[in-house]
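Re: the 435-residue chain
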Amino acid sequence: MPRKTAMKIRRFSTVEDDWLRRRRTSRVFDDPSLEALVKDIIGEVQKRGDKALFDFTKKFDDVALYERGIPVKEKDVQGAYEKVNDEEISALTYLKDRITKTERCILEKASFIQKEDGLTIHHTLTPLRSVGCYVPGGLAAYPSTLLMTAVPAKVAGVPRIAVCSPPTFKGEINPLILVAADICGVNEIYRVGGAQAVAALAYGTDSIDPVMKIVGPGRRIVNFAKAVVSRDVAVDLPAGPSELLVLADETADPRFVALDLISQSEHGPDNVVGVVTPYEGFARRVIDEVETLIDVVDRGEIVLQSLSEKGFVMVCEDLDAAIDFVNAFAPEHLEIMTRNPSKVAERIQSAGLILLGPYSPVSGSDYCFGTNHVLPTGGFSRTYSGLSSLDFVKRVNVVACTKERLKAVEPVVRALALSEGLPNHFMALKERLNV
């Protein structure tokens, strides 16, 4: 008999006022005990450097790094190639090339020269000097996340890229992560994770020099640490446990939807997945498919727990209400499986990534499309975009103006400078025209 999840059909019209707030993972920042722990870890790393990293790695990861050390040596990176197969290396290289192509297009569009009647504005991009990429690790391995963080930095021209990732119980970093780092041209790799890694990247230790910006997803404690150090060093978007929302009508294949819910749920119980649809019959078919598949898929217990704790199915009055729900929920990933999904996408205002139709699954965006999967979670897609090469550059306008053009705009400068009570601004322009 198929195991049952705790997924129940909800109706958008009867959802309690704080349901969306409680579902969102942004509540991580309202945890006083976590805040105290993170600040204590950061303070200890600032005071004791590597010694604090050793202590916290032993405490939280049960790994003793005193003998092995924190930096990964070149021989360890080269040795990692012996532990992976050619198919894995080929897949990592393919994904790197896809990301590179997309990120180069982004940078090319962002740099331009505007010329007009004696005025030239060159919008230039200057890479940051150093970045730290946080890659979740430990018992799991996310080489794709390393590619998603390091490749855009490399494309942007960042000369120093440092990676921190938690070690396994043997004090190792998964060989796939090391190979991915080598393929990307990462400069430094460190066996350290959690809030202590964020602190080390922000403030430096004996082994780790500080960086200008920290990027990458992580658990609640990592995101909290990034928020704390953001007063002193730049950080990227809030990227926590993964989220998927599927907006579907009766034309969608309920099995495809169920498979995508399951695929995102296997990350762990903190992930949020849901379906929103105007059709109750379709919603019930999705639940039936999920409960049939749970008995045959790998990692079924993890999927069952995740769907039972954070999975949901939302039935709305019509498609307009379903779109309203999506914009209110602001998911990390949004799949649209409806008639004419591109028209529906035009009305979506809040989503980290939008995937159209039955053949654009999240797994494709994770591993082969070339779009970045480091995306805002917890409702932050209302205001944040996904990670890109633009996060690793400073944008600067270089301006050159002729005397003739300056004379033409003299009345504009005079009117605005005097209206703001800043007459010397106008004087600085006027005197040039008298020479």
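Residues 32-106+128-235 form a domain with the Rossmann fold fold (CATH 3.40.50.1980).
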